[in-house]
Amino acid sequence: MRRRSTFTFSMLCFGFAFLYIPIFSLIFYSFNKSRLATVWGGFSTKWYGELFQNELIIDAALLSLRIAAVTATMAVILGTMAGLALARLGRYRGRTLFAGMVMAPLVMPEVITGLSLLLLFVSLEEMIGWPAGRGATTITIAHITFSMAYVAVIIQSRLSSMDDSLEEAAMDLGSRPFRVLWDVTLPIISPAMVSGWLLSFTLSLDDLVIASFVSGPGSSTLPMVIFSKVRLGVTPDINALATIIILVVSTGVLLAGILMHRQEQRRLRDEQMAYSD
Amino acid sequence: MSGGAHVAVSRKIEAAAEPLQGEVGRIDATGIALAILNRFRNAWRTVLILVPYFWLFLFFLVPFGIVLKISLAEAVIARPPFTPLLEWVDGTVLEIRITFDNFLFLIEDALYWTGYLNSLKLATISTICCLLLGYPMAYAIARASKTMRNIYLMMIILPFWTSFLLRIYAWMGMLNNNGVINNVLSWIGLIDEPIGFMHTEFAVFLGITYSYLPFMILPLYANLERMDLSLHEAAMDLGSRPMRVFFDVTLPLSMPGIIAGSLLVFIPATGEYVIPALLGSPDNLMIGRVLFDEFFSNRDWPVASAVAIVLLFVLVAPIMFFQHYQMKEAEEGKA
Amino acid sequence: MNDQAQSTQYEDRPWLDPKAEPFIEIKGVTKQFGSFTAVKDVDLKIFKGELFALLGGSGCGKTTLLRMLAGFEVPTFGRLIIDGVDMTEVPPYERPVNMMFQSYALFPHMSVEKNIAYGLKHEGINKQEVGDRVAEVIDLVQLGQFAKRKPHQLSGGQRQRVALARALVKRPKVLLLDEPLGALDKKLREQTQFELMNIQDQVGITFVVVTHDQEEAMTLSTRIAVMNRGEIVQIGTPTDIYEYPETRFTADFIGSINMFEGRVVEDKADHVIVKSEEAGCSFYIDHGVSIREDSTVWVAVRPEKIMVDKQAPADGSHNVVSGVVQDVGYFGNHSLYRIELKSGRIVHVSKPNERRSSRRERGVEWDDEVFLSWEASSAVVLTE
What we know:
The structure holds 3 protein chains of 3 kinds.
Chain A: H1 5-29, H2 46-53, H3 55-87, H4 95-103, H5 110-128, H6 136-160, H7 164-172, H8 177-206, H9 209-214, H10 222-230, H11 236-276
Helix pairs in contact in A: 1-11, 2-11, 3-6, 3-8, 3-10, 6-8, 7-8
Chain B: H1 2-17, H2 24-39, H3 43-71, E1 86-89, E2 93-96, H4 101-108, H5 110-142, H6 146-161, H7 164-175, H8 180-188, H9 201-226, H10 229-237, H11 242-253, H12 255-270, H13 274-279, H14 287-296, H15 301-334
Antiparallel strand pairs in B: 1-2
Helix pairs in contact in B: 1-2, 3-15, 4-15, 5-9, 5-12, 6-9, 7-9, 9-12, 10-11, 12-15, 14-15
Chain C: H1 2-9, E1 24-33, E2 36-46, E3 51-55, H2 62-70, E4 77-82, E5 85-86, E6 97-100, H3 112-121, H4 127-140, H5 156-168, E7 174-178, H6 186-203, E8 206-211, H7 214-220, E9 223-228, E10 231-236, H8 238-243, H9 248-253, E11 258-267, E12 272-276, E13 281-285, E14 296-301, E15 307-309, E16 320-330, E17 334-341, E18 346-352, E19 369-373, E20 380-382
Parallel strand pairs in C: 3-8, 3-9, 6-7, 7-8
Antiparallel strand pairs in C: 1-2, 1-4, 4-5, 9-10, 11-12, 11-14, 12-13, 14-20, 15-19, 16-17, 16-19, 17-18
Helix pairs in contact in C: 3-4, 3-5, 4-5
């Protein structure tokens, strides 16, 4: 194995360079004094200052965060239910259709999902008067729909690697199925639920295409505002915004990584301790 | 049945109460309460299935029906901008209006089918590029030490957590006429005139490869990491050179990872809108962009719906294949 | 007076008492999964205080039978009665039965104490009593110093004891154990076997153990049911099963045995003579089988019941055959000989190494021509 490692390792380095150089150049130019975004005119943080005065961007960011928080919470609830229904409730009528519906949003092109949801909302409004117009509510519903699919897949795969006899043991010890769910299944899959929440939050925060279809006037999410600005070319205040987002996310991911690493280390130590006494 | 369950419950309670003589009254009441609860034993189960089922049915399946319906309608200048499928004529005759004009229009106008072909071509090339770059990366990660493996994986996933849109935007800064790449090249002295990378097909496929690379690497890694190393040792022990081991053992065994990764790149790339809109030129159309423009610029909902239906048909085979494959994996994971 | 005498007579062997009421009764139970029949028409009576083993290879239906007793599977046909109550369709959480799982199934997010107390939580007992009962079983399985630990901080043996304690604390009428020692290494397994027997003795609960390990079944249990392809092949005490197997399957499955096909030449009330071409000799066996003369039967002799000698024994008409030593395997406490008969059949013989082997004295070795003989009571005639 070691002999081939030169080739694969250089590919790995190349791949990481490919992934990270654009991001680093973006961060680098966010501190550029010049308005011409890619001509270096000295160090400056003025674009950050300008960013925070831009009410359009601030409002859009707040709306996006609000939608993402509601989406993530709802997606975890519905996705966990769907995951449980797929992995734990055996066979029932319509299971195949259900499994198909859970999996499909993962690969469905966004333009199709966006268009079809918009047409649904328009038809519903015509028929029953709800939802009245489009805005944050319709965006949230659309985001929940595709995010819950991701949560369901995460939960399902966690459940299928979980020992079935844990749930049987709880039942054997006198707990009814609902209690078993509450006492045993949910605590054990809770890390998967947290990952599902974070993933849904990110997906919602990131979505442009579906939101463009189902949003209405006055409810522009952050990606929509960014898109309309960058369509016209590179602008330094978006560089600054991108830098902030990248730094926040990286810090979060790094912290999570370190936390997980620590936990793993502690676990290993505990196991060693168990066998030494 | 419920009578039997009641008897069993109270018997069981009695059995548990054997050492607690004199508390029989309380116990019996509990027994009856439990028997009533028994009737609702399976209600939560139904709720667990029905709530997400109903949600997906309403917000995922029904919309497709509506798209199909509108694709068969005529465009009119009204709100909503299409004719109804069913209409009462003179209050007595129910008229069904179906037109295939929209689909015929798609065939007649070269704009659409070149859009589809272009999308498929770009998605295929990008998928192959992702595979050629992603496979060695996944391989190197899977064979790294445990600590390094986690660090590498985090580095692969990190861009995935940051904004997709902003990562495409970063490439605009790289590829511009006065962007990073042109600056570097002219600084070295390789070029006098900037190369026009932006608004080319090359830029689009670079963007797709860049954005979807993690989707290729992760399933491949999962597959390669699981692979039993003793198989390689056995093959080498039997006299195969490392290159042969790779083609005889590793590659065939990693086929599931290759399939999953390729589909995860290919399917969404075909319908991609943001990347061609930001990095491509108006000339090299991709179907996602055609659909978007048809809807927002031309406000022709029926044609946009027809474009969506045809796109869905083009992708239905790979989507079904992906689903079948995912479910098989899920079942096998369980066994 | 007479009754009293009888009940003492059957104290350790309630299954022999015609008047004893079975504690667990399995009546005509069949379990089908689709077209596959996992358990086929099983009838079984288990008595109070027994340590009963279900023994068989993988896929023989023993685990399915256990899971039906626990309530995780409902029989397709038949009834299950525990202590006089029909439990066939009662869900697991309402049965006075607890199970110790093969994987132990300890809740990873709860400490040892919480794991053990879990089953008492919903029983409506006050906190004080829960605490007392948990402390009592923790004491019983000697886990006092580990009470606050989480399962991943325990060794395999400790986990096994937590699983046992968690099931015992519920004071079930029956404790089901699925491969209780399967996950332990050999040394620990022997020690734990005796602990398990001691604990059962102390708590007096009826144990039903599923195992694929015949030694485990023999040392642990009062009685064994040998299962094959969903059916019970034989039920009996370990001695019965080992010394008097009723079928070729049981004889072959339990321990090792030499089996020869033969023909009955004489069948009397007190003895039977079987002539076997496969062995190249005739067998004189001191029990009758009441079968038609000339019919085909099998004769089985355990390796340790065969004597090996370089001289021919005095009485050489029956139960003697000669052969050549092919292999000698030295196992420390005993040696195993592989001897080829004239017919070409290989016979296994084992001999305890009672005396320390000396270098001068030459015992039976490779290529020696030897005589094999056994007593009239050693061989068993099997008809099916």
